[in-house]
Amino acid sequence: MKKLALTTALALTMGLSAVANAHPTNAGYATSSNDTVWKTSYGECWQHGYWTEEDKTVECGAEAAAPAPAPAPAPAPKMVMKMMDAEESHIVYFDFDSSKVTDVSAIVNYVGSLAKLNSIELKGYTDSIGTNAYNDALSQRRVEAVDAALAAAGIDTAKVVTYSFGEANPVKSCTDAGASRKSCLAENRRVEVNIDGQKQVKVQQ
User: Fold this and answer.
1) Is 132 a domain residue?
2) Where does this protein have coiled-coil stretches (predicted)?
3) Cα angle for residues 87, 90, 96 (degrees, 5° grid)
């Protein structure tokens, strides 16, 4: 009875029928012009006669919606080891009229990084100074010297194939003469090393 009397008195004094309105946000409740829900002195929201349970708001006693569960973290990608084809080329350079090998450590290190060695191809060349016959023999000595250096480093030279081409396929042409010509043609005095094999690499499955 007390609540009913208080409600009636407030409605009469504040002109409830004229000022109160039902806003979509607070449908079913009496609100002021700025959409504030009217409440009794007990803190209870005033309900219109057409109020239903569907109109209940969190402010007026409805339970707040539970937050959506956080999505499960994506599983970490699975990594597996896979054999992949691998090729690399190196060049061993020589002094003029020499078959002395200076350094094959880069070749040895690369071969050591392979899971499987398929083949090593050696192609020997000279510069154009000297006769064709002499240069053919010199290019052969150069590939043999590289082959021997690889064998001494522990590489299976059964996988090595050698070719000698003399002064063919120059990578540098020069018009100099004398000592200057020898220096200019240095890039032609070489053994090209082509390595074919396979590496184990980690890939995403």
Assistant:
1) yes
2) none
3) 160
**Is the Cβ–Cβ distance between 191 and 143 less than 8 Å?**
yes
Q: Is the overall model pTM greater than 0.70, yes or no? A: no
Show which of 11, 39, 55 is a domain's final residue: 55
Sign of the torsion angle spanned by Cα atoms 181, 187, 188, 190:
positive
Containing domain of residue 112, as a range?
79-204
- The pair phi, psi for residue 74, each rounded to 5°, is -65, 140
- Number of structural domains (the chain) is 2
Cα distance between residue 160 and residue 93, in whole Å: 18
Do the domain assignments include residue 66?
no
Q: Is 107 a domain residue?
A: yes
Tell the residue number behind the tokens 């078959």, with chain if given.
99
Q: Which amino acid is at 176?
A: D
Looking up tokens 């002395």, which residue turns up? 100
Q: Is the pLDDT at 20 greater than 70, yes or no?
A: no
Per-residue tokens: 201: 């690499």
Rounded CA separation 190/161 (Å): 16
